[in-house]
């Protein structure tokens, strides 16, 4: 079993090795075959153009490689010790056979923890493998074999989990990968056309320029789809997992539960407030990966979950009906916010926890 696990761990690096080899070959094809052997020699002798091409090429290559390395070697984020069950609490959980009793024990344990999300059944989110209460937006990765803060997905192309501490790096990796591919394809295109017209003399250069254009165009299309999806997720403040299944709060599933109210605020939660740091793969995301500003019902509306008195329920229903009449065919979500009185954005007022260690800079 140990040998099999070691083999699987080794095989998991193959996609990273494949990407590295493709980039290494593209470097040779672009710098040597295109710029040195084609542009800087007869019949073109265009050294100035080759220098300009090389300057911009190396800038994009450095940013791409930097983002890629940060995504690979930065952990997605581990949960703090306070969320793990003590030996005594674990024995209490394991001694209970009834699910409802286990949930009551978990609620007692997590009373001082900043946890707002629930399971689909309304229970506390608990990882039976890690033996810990799950922080909001945290999920267990079966590949990494641990819980990841604000887990987005496990990406085989970086052989790592994408989570709270490296999500910005992953988005920048996609952005610079797309920019790199588009730049290479655009600058190679004129000589790709010359290949079909028979104007390229060297057979070796023909081969490399032909496949360099096809490879750049193919990867650009693939990365464009991924970048488009993650741009949408950043602007709506959702993870890939949350886009498939909305997080569940006390009042039920809410796909906009973690939204900061605008695209700009959602973007800044991942990239931070300093604009000069946005293009750099340096950690600037807001928060600690445990506490999140949430759009949730206030305490009065949450009483609905605890079985409100009939008079209060009737009063809220009447108020909501009157508001909906006044608004006519207005936005349903807006009318719900007005009648039920949603909080705008509330910060957790729970006891402070040890902050998650920020990723090291490389």
Q: What secondary-structure arrangement, pairings included, does this model have?
A:
Layout: H1 2-11, H2 14-39, H3 47-73, H4 87-95, H5 99-109, E1 126-127, E2 132-133, E3 139-141, E4 146-148, E5 153-155, E6 160-162, H6 167-197, H7 203-236, H8 240-244, E7 248-249, E8 252-253, H9 263-271, H10 299-302, H11 310-327, H12 332-340
Antiparallel strand pairs: 1-2, 3-4, 5-6, 7-8
Summary, kept brief:
With 362 residues, the protein is mainly α.
Helix content: 40-55%
For the record, give the distance between the C-alpha atoms at the N and C termini, rounded to a whole number.
35 Å
- Provide mean pLDDT, rounded: 82
User: Unreliable runs, pLDDT <50, ≥5 residues?
Assistant: 297-357
Helix/sheet category: mainly alpha
The total beta strand count reads 8
> How many whole angstroms does the radius of gyration measure?
26 Å
- General shape: elongated
Strand order of the largest sheet: 1-2
Tell me the β content.
5-15%
SSE series: HHHHHEEEEEEHHHEEHHHH
Q: Would you write up a description of this structure?
A:
This protein is mainly alpha-helical. It has helices spanning 2-11, 14-39, 47-73, 87-95, 99-109, 167-197, 203-236, 240-244, 263-271, 299-302, 310-327, 332-340; strands at residues 126-127, 132-133, 139-141, 146-148, 153-155, 160-162, 248-249, 252-253. It has a two-stranded antiparallel ribbon. Strands 3-4 form a two-stranded antiparallel sheet. A hairpin with a 4-residue loop joins strand 3 (139-141) and strand 4.
Features:
about 55% helix, two-stranded antiparallel ribbon, 8 strands, about 350 residues, two-stranded antiparallel sheet, single chain, mainly alpha
């Amino acid at each position: 079993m140990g040998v099999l696990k070691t083999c699987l761990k080794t095989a998991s690096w193959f996609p990273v090795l494949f990407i590295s080899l493709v980039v290494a070959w593209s470097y040779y094809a672009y710098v040597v075959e295109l710029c040195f052997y084609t542009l800087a020699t007869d019949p073109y002798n265009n050294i100035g153009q080759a220098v300009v091409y090389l300057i911009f090429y190396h800038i994009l290559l450095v940013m791409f490689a930097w983002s890629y390395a940060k995504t690979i070697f930065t952990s997605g984020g581990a949960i703090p010790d306070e969320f793990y069950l003590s030996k005594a609490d674990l024995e209490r959980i394991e001694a209970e056979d009834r699910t409802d009793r286990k949930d009551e024990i978990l609620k007692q344990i997590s009373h001082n923890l900043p946890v707002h999300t629930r399971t689909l059944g309304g229970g506390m989110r608990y990882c039976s493998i890690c033996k810990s209460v799950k922080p909001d937006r945290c999920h267990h990765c079966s590949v990494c074999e641990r819980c990841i803060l604000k887990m987005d997905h496990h990406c085989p192309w970086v052989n790592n989990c994408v989570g709270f501490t490296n999500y910005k790096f992953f988005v920048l990796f996609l952005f610079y990968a797309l920019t790199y591919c588009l730049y290479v394809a655009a600058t190679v295109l004129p000589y790709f056309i010359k290949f079909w017209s028979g104007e390229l003399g060297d057979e070796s250069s023909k081969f490399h320029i032909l496949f360099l254009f096809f490879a750049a165009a193919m990867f650009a299309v693939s990365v464009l789809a991924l970048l488009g999806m993650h741009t949408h997720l950043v602007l709506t403040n959702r993870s890939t997992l949350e886009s498939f299944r909305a997080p569940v709060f006390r009042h039920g599933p809410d796909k906009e539960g973690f939204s900061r109210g605008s695209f700009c605020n959602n973007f800044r939660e991942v990239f931070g407030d300093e604009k000069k740091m946005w293009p750099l793969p340096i950690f600037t995301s807001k928060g600690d990966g445990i506490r999140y500003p949430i759009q949730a019902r206030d305490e009065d509306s949450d009483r609905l979950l605890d079985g409100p008195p009939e008079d209060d329920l009737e009063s809220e229903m009447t108020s909501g009906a009157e508001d909906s009449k006044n608004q006519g065919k207005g936005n349903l979500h807006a009318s719900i916010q007005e009648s039920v009185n949603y909080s705008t954005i509330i910060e957790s007022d729970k006891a402070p926890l040890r902050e998650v260690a920020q990723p090291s800079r490389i």
